[in-house]
Amino acid sequence: MVPPASSPRSGSVTPRVVFPNKVLPYLLVAPQLAITLVFFYWPAGQAFYQSMLRQDPFGLRTKFVWFANFRKVLADPAYLNSIKVTVVFSLATAIVAMCVALLLAVMAEKVVRGKGLYRTLLIWPYAVAPAIAGMLWLFLFNPSIGSLAYMLRSFGIAWDPLLNGTHAMILLVSAAAWKQISYNFLFFVAGLQAVPKALIEAAAMDGAGETKRFWTIVFPLLAPTTFFLLVVNTVYALFDTFGIVHAVTGGGPGKTTETLVYKVYNDGFVNLILGDSAAQSVILMIIVISLTAIQFRYVERKVHYG
Length: 306
Fold this sequence. Notes:
- Helix 12 (260-270) packs antiparallel against helix 13 (274-299).
- The two termini are 33 Å apart.
- Strand 3 and strand 4 form a beta hairpin.
- The protein is built from 13 helices and four strands.
- The strands form two sheets. It has a two-stranded antiparallel ribbon.
- By secondary structure, it is mostly helical.
- It comes from Mesorhizobium ciceri.
- The complex is composed of two ATP-binding proteins (UgpC), two transmembrane proteins (UgpA and UgpE) and a solute-binding protein (UgpB).
């Protein structure tokens, strides 16, 4: 064990811990490194390699074509349409899920009796599998047997997500946002509990209303939580909503709800266009990495920690 080192500026003693066994630190991080290599870097490398191949559906003939698959995919109108669909779907899902979760968290904090019960009930939907969540919303809004669809028709709304692309997108965003609201709610509740009550009480004594106290004190202190959830919800909308899209709309009607991740599946596993599907997966990975980097580079500048 190395003796404590003193700081040259303040003279305080800073404890330094050194492992006597030089191999132990590497053994401790080895499982995480192995999981990262096996489940991220190796599949990513395989996808990048296959994106430069042109194969028949049975893999009997293979031709190395360099970046021809990428040029073909980026010139495909159907793929460009899926990019537009993904942008609309991702923005709408993230905004709805975060706004509703923040509203529910603020309302739950005002409850005096039964606060724990309300929190538990609001967290439970996160345990529902994406496919089950999609089927639940599909049954509720089914134009023939759905109870909520019947209610919409009683108000004169000709609800039909099976034929109307706008209705299908609304249904898809609703199902995806509902699935993510519980996750966001959990973090917003934790963030609200960390807000100093003394600041809110001081603002109230100064005459600040409830709305002003929220936007000037509470919400700025929730900036780290909001930024974290923004990143998580962006990745969720791009990747983790495949099961919901597959269960609710299947990319229809007329590919109006075919997102990027669903098009990768549709071209690769349904149409067996392996090279194009691999190229699309590489492009999607680059998009997600770029969006995350942009968020950390520019959005995090406006986040104040502590």
